[in-house]
Amino acid sequence: MTANKIPMLYLRGIIGHPRSFLGDALFQTHENLEHLAMMERVLGPLPGHMLRRADRQAEKYVRRGRLNWLEGCMSRESMKAVSKLPCLQNLVMENVDHSAGDLIDLLHGLLRYDPSDRLSAREALRHPFFNRRS
Predict the structure, then answer these.
(1) What is the rounded CA–CA span in Å between residue 93 and residue 28?
(2) 3 state SS of 130
(3) Which residues contact 28 (CB under 8 A, 6 or more apart)?
(4) Structural contact between residues 52 and 45, judged by C-beta atoms closer than 8 angstroms
(5) Cα separation of 130 and 117, whole Å?
(6) Complete DSSP assignment for 35-95
(7) What are the structural domain ranges in the chain?
(8) CA 124, CA 60: separation in Å to the nearest integer?
């Protein structure tokens, strides 16, 4: 873990787990490629520099610098599970009444794929989402 960066798993301690406004876990799968496809659907494409650095075991999930989702998809149910997920912005807008824009911006900062690009704890706490007056 990069020093002073917030891992995605700790996000629930700051804002709450997506389950808190969805009623269920956001990424319901145990299959690696499907999980990555779900993450791309909600958070946007995986960065090319990370895909290019994929190790030998992960190469089966990547083809030509992109996630090999359509060719590697294991089932029609898997395809449906991924396609029904909303992007992060829509997910927040559907479930949050106030400060949605600030929350979306904060979540994007905390959930960046590359840990070195994520907001630090200090940066997150200075975010307008936490500094707004009710």
Answers:
(1) 21
(2) helix
(3) 81
(4) no
(5) 20
(6) HHHHHHHHH-PPPHHHHHT--GGGGGGEETTEE-HHHH---HHHHHHHHTPPPHHHHHHHH
(7) 1-17+97-129, 27-84
(8) 35
Give the mean pLDDT of 89-117: 87
Amino acid at 115: P
Residue 117, SS3? helix
Q: Kindly calculate the radius of gyration of the chain based on its CA atoms and give it in whole angstroms.
A: 16
Please tell me the predicted confidence (pLDDT) of residue 52.
86
pLDDT > 70: what percent of the chain?
81
pLDDT exceeds cutoff 50 at 133? yes
pTM of the complete model: 0.77
14: confidence class by pLDDT, cuts 50, 70, 90: very low
Token pair 């787990």 is at which residue? 17
The pLDDT tens digits for 41-73 are: 999 999 999 988 887 778 789 988 889 998 888
Neighbour count for residue 58 (Cβ, 10 Å):
14
